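mind reviewing these tokens:
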Amino acid sequence: MMTTVPQSQKQRFAKCIANDGYRLSLTPGQFYRVLPDKAEAHDMLRVVDNTGEDYLFDADLFENVNDLAGWLTDLTISVTVPMKATIRQIANQRGISMAALLREWIDERLDLPAMAS
């Protein structure tokens, strides 16, 4: 069952620190979305894993991520030459970099936690 989170609900994330018994589902060092679940009272986390499904996992497999500002990562994409030219033109018209334009577009479409300044 694929899980979607209502935009009004604050999203939480955890970093996987071990995948004992879950090699296909979890990757150490990877960040996962955590969904609310009453099982947290029993040291379990409901996590959207590598399959895109949400399952309960032992909380000891994860590190809580409270301050997302410290967790930056690179993203590489491939686009066609005309698409890149169009993105460059729009960015130039706005007086910003292509990366800044793409970050704005992503922010507009995803309901992610705001980064601390």
